[in-house]
Amino acid sequence: MSAHEIVPAALDGERIDRLVAMITSASRTQVVDWISAGLVQRNGAVVSTRSQRVHEGDLIDIDIDLDAPPAGLIPEPDVEITIVHVDDDVIVIDKQAGLVVHPGAGNATGTLVQGLLARFPEIVDVGDPERPGIVHRLDKDTSGLMLVARTQAAYEELVAMLAAHEVERCYLTLVWGIPESVGGLVDAPIGRSHREPTRMVVSAQGKEARTRYEVIETFEAPVPMALLECRLETGRTHQIRVHMAAIGHAVVGDERYRGVRPAVSSPRMVLHSAQLRLDHPTQEGVQLAFESPLPEDLAAVVESVRNP
């Protein structure tokens, strides 16, 4: 389907290429190609220059199929994937940072899904045809453990288990500041920002979202910080990042949610999917449990804070 957006007051005067990139999460290079091809319209007129400014109330039309994988689901054996478990129904991977989970606007190739299809072609008919086998996602720059369904029966059961909060997902994260309590529950609905479509915010009109956290270690220098375990009770987009920022403890290195500060240098946000625990979706009485340590880049950040 095409995208149709009305420019909000907060984006009055913004360049149209930047606006389209925010709406679609595409790269600026991809947006420029769309504009050059005449696929972007403002108030019914084809946009000819990427630097054109938009105004509040303008109607922006983007004539591309945002839901379809741009290059098709072509298996790509060169995509690096670390597989930690595989059986007849379930695959567990340890995703590296920088790997996009599935094709989308601005990410046509080199995704996890395309790498999985090269190794497990049978998943092509499992679940959503645009992201076969995928039952939950990790952000591009989040590393760690992730579940993939190998059969339709496993897919349906895993989706139901996630909805019923029967899959334990634990993340490690380094945050700015030290929480007042050694643990707690952030229970705050999350929805998409009207001002910045690629950002999520705590909103009364959002979807239910709950994150439990526990302080594992605290640091006082160079500035107060804390290493947390965060357990998801729901699975909203950017949930941990939004919830931690909302309580005043943004994830270190998170550019989108005010987590980049000069006191500590980090190559990416310090967020890692460290534990998965669940009952096997198709084998009664079988439990699955996996752990993944902090990768070297994030471990180095934590160590630099531990021993400044």
From TrEMBL:
Keyword Nucleotide-binding belongs to the record: no
Keyword entries, A-Z: Isomerase
CDD domains: PseudoU_synth_RluA_like (cd02869), S4 (cd00165)
Stored InterPro entries: PsdUridine_synth_cat_dom_sf, PsdUridine_synth_RluA-like_CS, PsdUridine_synth_RluC/D, PsdUridine_synth_RsuA/RluA, RluA_PseudoU_synthase, S4_RNA-bd, S4_RNA-bd_sf
Residue ranges of every copy of the RNA-binding S4 domain listed in the record: 14-74
Any one Gene Ontology BP term: enzyme-directed rRNA pseudouridine synthesis
GO MF annotation, one: pseudouridine synthase activity
Family: Belongs to the pseudouridine synthase RluA family.
Protein name: Unannotated protein
Species of the source: freshwater metagenome
